[in-house]
Design goal:
This protein has 248 residues and is mostly helical. The chain has helices at 3-13, 18-24, 44-65, 68-82, 90-121, 127-143, 148-157, 171-210, 218-232, 235-245. The relative contact order is 0.10.
């Protein structure tokens, strides 16, 4: 007995209930065709497959291809320097990093949309060719902030000769070099942010030790002082403004 016969018998046992009988009837397969057509644009189901794949890879792409990593590293260093372990929360810092990343990448996204997405939507190019057409604006943006040392490292590891033009550098070399450069820059900015707050910690610790306040942790006194200093100099405006200008 196959599954169609089982469903038919179940519908009869239910005593003529038409709703159950209708629900249990075997349905025909959907008419969606998952075979890529000969045309350039691809079928609607294939577009959905590409979209779902991109959504799955979105977190990794966000970290690897955008300034998100640098921004988040700097904000975490700033929070540690202030001595506030939970304020702002991780969600707040990630949200701020996402908004600033969108602000910085919006021109690049517009260029990619015009050069790759629009022809793909019109059916003029296939998916792979659209990806290739959208690569140059992103490569140009990433190469602006890659250190030559990091780029040379991955060219050496890949055993690829140095190309004559920057546009000829393959993305498999550009992406890891860009991530390494962004992490280095983020740590440099974070270390510079740490120094003034470290001085406050040292001064407070020296004062409390000299007057014999050994039972009072210095961080209890230094944290309010650091927050007061940060608010008085409008720290968030200075930090975000400096970060944005570093991408100019």
């Amino acid at each position: 007995m196959n599954w169609q016969q089982v469903l038919s018998a179940a519908a009869l046992i239910l005593g003529g209930n038409s709703a159950w009988a209708t629900a249990l009837r075997p349905r025909h397969a959907s008419g969606l065709n998952w075979t890529a057509p000969a045309g350039a644009g691809g079928s609607v189901p294939w577009n959905i497959v590409v979209l779902l794949t991109l959504l799955t890879l979105l977190p990794a792409l966000l970290v690897a291809l955008t300034p998100f990593a640098r921004l988040l590293v700097v904000f975490h260093f700033l929070r540690q320097a202030l001595g506030t372990t939970t304020a702002p929360s991780n969600q707040t810092l990630i949200g701020l990093s996402l908004v600033l990343t969108y602000f910085l990448m919006q021109p690049v996204g517009t260029a990619i949309y015009q050069s790759a997405v629009v022809p793909f939507e019109k059916g003029q190019v296939p998916v792979l060719e659209a990806v290739e057409m959208g690569t140059p604006p992103l490569r140009h943006f990433m190469l602006k902030y890659i250190r030559e040392k990091d780029l040379g490292l991955f060219l050496e590891l890949a055993q690829v000769p140095a190309p004559a033009r920057a546009e000829d550098v393959p993305m498999r070399i550009v992406v890891p070099a860009y991530i390494l450069s962004e992490l280095k820059t983020g740590f440099q900015i974070g270390a510079a942010l740490f120094l003034p707050f470290l001085v406050i910690d040292l001064v407070v610790a020296a004062i409390t030790t000299s007057i014999g306040m050994l039972q009072l942790p210095p961080v209890v006194i230094s944290t309010p002082l650091k927050l007061l200093l940060f608010v008085m100099v409008d720290g968030w405006n200075l930090v975000v403004g400096s970060l944005m200008k570093s991408f100019a």
